[in-house]
Amino acid sequence: MGALEGIKVLDLSQFEAGPSCTLMLAWLGADVVKVEPPQRGEPGRYLGGSKEDSHYFVMLNHNKRSVTLNLKSDEGREVLKRMVPSFDVLVENYTLGTLDDWGVGWDVLRELNPRLIYGSVRGFGDTGPYSGFKSFDMIAQAAGGAMSVNGERDSEPLRLGVTLGDTGTGVHLAIGVLAAVIQRQQTGRGQRVQLSMQEAVMNYLRIAMLAQYITDKPARRTGNHIGIMSADLYPCQPGGSNDFVYITISTPAMWEALLKTIGREDLIGHEEWSNPLWRGRNAQAMQDLIAPWTSQRDKIEVMETIGAAAVPCSAVFDTSDLLSNKHLVERRAVVDVEHPVRGPMRVPSNPIRMSDSPTDVTRAPLLGEHNAEVYAEVLGLRDDELAVLVERGVV
User: Mean pLDDT across the stretch 41-52?
Assistant: First the structure.
């Protein structure tokens, strides 16, 4: 039994910020019905020039069902209104005001279903001077401050390779939706849950902001170095672009364990080398000490050897490494799915583990794949009635 079994979600979202929220809910057992325009579906299906079911879409829509519905038509909006009373949650990330202009915004839908939890994502929120501005992940990274602290000390600001602005916001929205579900058990009422991508990214900036409070100046980019402890990247064999390990030393015991592992017991108890502040300020000296040892070994050997000595260390895993990593495969953190368009794919699974609610990954749905079953379940439509809606371009 999924932890959210019995919770029904209408997913009107597109691209990533909204779908990453509903993906989390679907993984946890909610029945997520994705509502897409007829013929082409949501724009994410064709991102990157794909003719259908892009890898981007497939990765963000596991465990969901898909129906088509033309929300630009009066009849399509009436169908949506008829569906809303049967659902617990609705998630959308349309441009501010779009659903209100169509007559299916929060104020209308909560009258139809007072228990409805209405989740929305905007780039800059629903109020304030920037509320009408459009956003994507990289815009949110810039607006939320992440870009300002990412990169080498003397480099220009650097975009993160992970989609912190999109998926990071989606995870925040999922938390808000679940909180609203719990509160509804006490009040019997739904509520609106709103997320600003800028503010979600800023929430990840809390530790970087410490520099602002301490120096009264903007936090600086520091690259791979953390000045308060010995932490850095070290090269490994065979010398490719990702052949590195990251090692962190935060206690005297870790420092001594590392020295023993790399055969430098002679430095145990040394006045300067035993001082963590000195090590943190002398990154090149640390490189000269550790890199000759790591550079003679591959990154997995280094990680396993140093990790076994109770020293925090990890290889820099690239995407190929992750999908084949023995640890992740054994834990089913990556699993195999078969998609009718994309064929066999190994994909990341749900990172949340619950002892009583195991989860599995099912493939992303084809466009409108579940029209017949969902419209029969929710509205009681017969096949001939559904056919009429298809002919009219409503579904």
Answer: 93
Once rounded to an integer, what is the mean pLDDT over residues 377-384?
A: 98
Peptide bond into 238 cis (omega under 30): yes
Three-state SS across 71-97? CCCHHHHHHHHHHHHHCCEEEECCCCC
DSSP string, 87-136: -SEEEE-PSTTHHHHTT-SHHHHHHH-TT-EEEEEESS-SSSTTTT----
Stretch 112-120: mean pLDDT, rounded?
98
Q: What percent of the chain has pLDDT over 90?
A: 96
Domain holding 295, by residue range, is: 230-235+244-315
CA nearest to 342, candidates 50, 63, 66, 68: 50
Does 16 lie in the same domain as 125?
A: yes
Q: Would you name the residues annotated as active-site residues?
A: 166
Angle at 314 between CA 147 and CA 241, to 5 degrees: 65
**378 in a structural domain:** yes
The Cβ-side half-sphere exposure at 204, using a 13 Å CA radius, reads 25
Q: Are 394 and 70 in contact (CB under 8 A)?
A: yes
| Residue 281 shares a structural domain with residue 370 | no
pTM here? 0.95
Name the E strands within 166-228: 192-196
Domain count, the chain: 2
Proportion of the chain above pLDDT 70, given as a percent = 99
Angle at CA 257, nearest 5°, toward 251 and 260? 145
Give the H or E element holding residue 12: none
The answer to the question of residue 118 being in a domain is: yes
Q: Rounded CA gap, 116 and 54, in Å?
A: 31
Question: From the CB of residue 144, how many other CB atoms can be counted at a distance below 10 Å?
Answer: 24
Task: Examine residue 107 and state whether it is found in any structural domain, yes or no.
Answer: yes
Q: What's the CATH number where 43 sits?
A: 3.40.50.10540
Distances (CA, A) of 87 to 37, 83, 113: 19, 7, 8
